[in-house]
Each structure stands twice: as C-alpha cells, then as structure tokens.
Design a protein that fits this description.
Elements (H helix, E strand, L loop, with lengths): L8 H19 L1 H7 L4 H9 L18 H14 L1 H17 L4 H8 L7 E4 L5 E5 L2 E11 L7 E9 L5 E10 L4 E3 L13 E11 L3 E3 H5 L18 H30 L1 E2 L5 E2 L4 H33 L6 H27 L11 H13 L6 H12 L11
Parallel strand pairs: 1-4, 2-4
Antiparallel strand pairs: 2-3, 3-7, 4-5, 5-8, 6-7, 9-10
Amino acid sequence: MGEIGAYAGPEAGVIAAVTDLLPALRQRAQETEDNRDVPAESVKAITETGFFRLLQPASYGGLEADPMAFFAAVRLLASACGSTGWVASVLGVHPWQLALFPARAQQDVWGADPGTRMSSSYAPTGRARLVEGGYRLDGRWSFSSGSAHATWVLLGAIVRDDDGAPADFCTFLLPAGDYAVDDVWDTVGLRGTGSNDIVVDGAFVPAHRALSFNDVTRCACPGQERNPGPLYRIPYGSVFTYAITTPVIGMGCGAYAAHVAYQRDRVRAAYAGEKAGDDPFGQVRAAEAASLLDGAWLALERNMAELMALARAGERLPVPLRLRVRRDQVTGTAQAVRAVDLLFENSGGRALKAGTPLQRFWRDAHAGRLHAINDPERALSMFGRGEFGRDVPPGAML
C-alpha cells in the first residue's frame, strides 16, 4: 500500500521502532483475540518505542509530534493486529485531549508519572450533576477500549442543572479508584480490544477535571495556555475521528498484504489447477483494493497537512475544511472496509478457517466500522449542508 511518509528526528525513530515490532504483534494476534485483550507484553513493547508520547505535550516530556506521524504508526500497528492497532490508537490519542484540560488536571495525571495512560468512553450514558466544587457522576459507560492498561478514564456526560435541564456536555477525568471495570467484552470483531464497561457509583469530580465540549468545538480550551503549540489548536473532530478511521485503514493494509502473500502460491483446484495469481479477475480486485486504501490514506494526509499549516500560522480553521475532514474520514473507513471485502471475496473458502489473518482482519474492519464516528450519513449530510449554504447543526463533531 502507499508508502508511509518520511519523518525526521524522534518521530522517525518511533516509526522505525514500531516497524520492528510488527512480526511479534502478528504472531500474537490470535493470542490477543483469544484473551479478549491486548497482552501486557505488547503494550509494554509499544510503550518502549515512544509511541504513546507522540501526541503528548513537550511540557510533560512528550514529543508533540506532527499528528500524521502518530497516525502512520497506528496504521502500521493495525496492519499487524487489528485489535492491537485499535487499542494503541485510542490510548495514544488521549494525551492530546488531556493537554486541553486545565493545567491542574494535567498535573494530577502526569505529575507523578508522565507515562500514565487513560482509556475513555464518550457516549453520555451516565449521569452528571453540579455539586459544590465540581460534579457528581453515576452510571455505566460502555466500549472503553484498552481499559485494563489504563489507570485513569475520560467519560462523557451531559451536565444537568437543579431542574434536570441540560446545562453542558463535558468530558470528565477520573482516577482508577473512582471507577470499576466490568468485564463484558465478548464479540466477533475487535475481540482483542478489551472494550469493557466503566461503572461509576457517585464519584466526585473536581471542577478542574472537566472539559466543556463547547470549548473543544471552538478549539479554545484552558490547556492551551500551558500547551500553546499548533498540535493543540486543531479540532477534536479531526483528531479523534482519525484515531478511529486509521486503524481500519491499517486493517485493510494488513488484509492486503496477507491476501497477496496467499494468492501468490495458491492453486485454484476448482479451475483446473489455475494459479490464483494468474487470474485476471483476481488481479483487478487486488488493484481496486489497493486504490481504495491508497485513496483513503492520501485524503487523510492532505487534510491534516492543511489543518496543521493553518494552525502553525495562527490562522482560523475554516468550517468547509473541517467538514471536508469529516467527509473524507468516514469515506476513508468505507473505502477500507470495501477493500477488505474485495480481498476476502477473492480468497476462496480456505480464508474462512479460524486463525487465518484475512478472516480476522475482515471481522475487525467490520467491527471498527460500527463505531458511531464512522456513520457516513451524518458526516456526509453535514458536508452537503455546508456546500448548499445551510447551517451545520449545533454540537456537530467537527
């Protein structure tokens, strides 16, 4: 698949170290799926590459790297093991969000250990209410990928006033002592992500550990005073959506590599011993899949380069560009899933065998598509509204 762009300095070192890990992660892919979680040794190895420091602010020892270096590394990890790439992406993007929180919250998490990791669950399924000095949280949040490898969690909730009316939508930051992880993850795809439930029973969250979504949408957050770099002036709706689409593209790249290796030597008994690599229809499907994957990745690179150029120049990030980012993000997911489907359909019945890479990538990619961020209609409708001069709905993830 299209070459991952060249990076210099520490970013290049991280990507090289991640590349060296890929054979071991491929070997552990079935173990990851069987255990329903990424092995601790894999998380340790990824940590040692510096991967989790890529989006962490320099003020806490992070690399504050170009975001596409982070996503390039995610794509590599997911090409070896979909679940590992997914968990790495989700855990690895949280330092970027913590950098937007008030400085006191950053100190709470990173003060004693800059390597502290956070999991998350943003759908507002729990309850939050204002109390003196902060908030009181209760409820259950699902799909917290990699929660076994984190000691803090980011939870989304609608804040209600004394009359029960919505007053704000915030992300809340809680330490492990304030929540429990309920092991409920048992799925057919992304089985190794350990995306278990977070249960909170009346935890107090001080005001400085809450981040209003209104500030996030405006790209004007309290943490930018401590972390003024351009990385922390680009939109949440661009960074977090990429963190979900990129692993799916990586799974497509892994499926492509596995398919090509398999087809080179495969003999099609049903077609008089024809070699699969000589089948012109199979060649066309491979070409279509490669084009879909390359197109998805190149669109993400182009859009992020434009966002970062504007952020570095201190210029306003125009709504049409933010809409295009979301358009290409959901389209990129769809293209990657379509590519995996083409490859799977072209692989014959032996691809169904448990333990083969292609069927695992096929299940994982379809599971990743189910994330709410990947719903194409909402993002494409927003883009169309913008093109036709209509207002974008308040609260849209841009």
